[in-house]
Amino acid sequence: MKLPIVAYGDPVLKKVCTPIEKDYPDLQVLIANMFETMYHASGVGLAAPQIGLPIRLFIVDTGADDKNRFKKVFINAEILEETGELWAFNEGCLSIPDIREDVMRKPNVLIRYYDENWELHEEEVTGMPARVIQHEYDHIQGTLFTDKLSPLRKTMLKSKLTAISKGNIKADYKMRFPNQSRKR
User: Fold this and answer.
1) Is 136 designated active site?
2) What does pTM read for this prediction?
3) Could you tell me how far CA 35 lies from the centroid of its own chain?
């Protein structure tokens, strides 16, 4: 089932999310719905707060060919280390449609997480998958990519961000807007 994506300005996007337990209700259905929602919106990652749930769950699928594809579920993830020289990349976010900005991130992460089968992993991830992980991890920490921009750049984007929170944006997927009672 495709779920509405929560738009910029909703308080759930600024919450530090809570861990979940192995018996979280309908977890496998939730994960499947998140993948369906993400694919429908042409995303490469989706965090639970983006569908209104303040829990430590996110998914990633870089969508590359099968040989280079990076598709994983991250439950109760913790980034243990970020290493390497900072590099800029133009990022976007399904909760902030039509805004893309260069964000500086390190190219390597060491992350500990549970997968959808509740198996514990600790692995080093590099390159684009690491960037997507960091972006989605930020979501479960209550941080948006716009929070990483300079004060001047944020000021320049203020009217666009306000328009998004009011629902004055056209997205190709269902969204839930904080300053609007109806869903689109």
Assistant:
1) yes
2) 0.94
3) 12
